[in-house]
Amino acid sequence: MIEILNQAEIARGRDTGALVATILQTIKERSTVGTNLLEIDGWAKSMMQAAGAESCYVNYAPAFGRGPFGHYICTSVNDAVLHGLPHDYALADGDLLTLDLAISKAGIVADSAISFVVGTASAEDLALIDATERALAAAIAVAEPGVKMGNISYAIGAVLRDAGYPINTEFGGHGVGSTMHQDPHIPNMGRPGRGYKLQAGLLLAIEPWAMVDTDKLVTDADGWTLRSATGCRTAHSEHTVAISASGAEILTLAK
């Protein structure tokens, strides 16, 4: 399903996106050495419920997971990159943490992810995070009505490839709207001029992610957390954007 939203729905999406950004930024500021991943999950739950929003994750049970997910935010640490299931783990100095959050408010979903280092950061980790952020910016820069989805994927892939990182296309960005995961799929590598043609009113969750030295994933025993097959570090950056006549408006940008 591909939804094209009207202006009133996009306005509600702005509110949802602002809430997602606020929650992620607040948790980033609170996360220090010793913070437990279950604390982070609790913070996300409290903030979204206080704002009258609903989690897209708690009852989420797709074919690829061991559902339902049962938590309010994805917390992926170091070699974990996607769908990190919160568990009893205290963050250590130098941990690379990815937070991925999707919520629904007033019937419209927004989805965003940030990666950052807790405590002491290595140059290698900062470069990896920077590459995903630059890939996200490059994709957003070319997103406008009439552009083919392959152009978005190519922009992401070009940045990650030039930075020297292998690219996995199993999981990527997606449409959002009244539900969290919709068509079109946005792989992190593609060919320009191919695929779905963007239209005004489309909401997209664009999410470059990368692993330092592999394009292979393995799944934890929890049935959810996806890790690099080699144990290398990973990073993930994501924004929800609304396509309009003037380009792509970022709905999940922290104020």
TrEMBL record:
Sorted alphabetically, the keyword list is: Aminopeptidase, Hydrolase, Metal-binding, Protease
GO MF term set: initiator methionyl aminopeptidase activity; metal ion binding; metalloaminopeptidase activity
Alphabetical GO CC annotations of the entry are: cytosol
Which reaction is catalysed here?
A: Release of N-terminal amino acids, preferentially methionine, from peptides and arylamides
Identify the Gene3D superfamilies for this entry: Creatinase/methionine aminopeptidase superfamily (3.90.230.10)
Instruction: Read off the Pfam families from this record.
Output: Peptidase_M24 (PF00557)
Lineage, top-rank taxon, reads Bacteria
Q: Which residues bind substrate?
A: H83, H181
At which positions is a divalent metal cation 2 bound? Answer: D111, H174, E207, E238
The cross-references to NCBIfam families, in alphabetical order and at most eight, read: met_pdase_I
The family note in this entry says: Belongs to the peptidase M24A family. Methionine aminopeptidase type 1 subfamily.
**Assembly with partners or alone:** Monomer.
The entry's function note states: Removes the N-terminal methionine from nascent proteins. The N-terminal methionine is often cleaved when the second residue in the primary sequence is small and uncharged (Met-Ala-, Cys, Gly, Pro, Ser, Thr, or Val). Requires deformylation of the N(alpha)-formylated initiator methionine before it can be hydrolyzed.
Q: What is this protein called?
A: Methionine aminopeptidase
Tell me the gene name: map_2
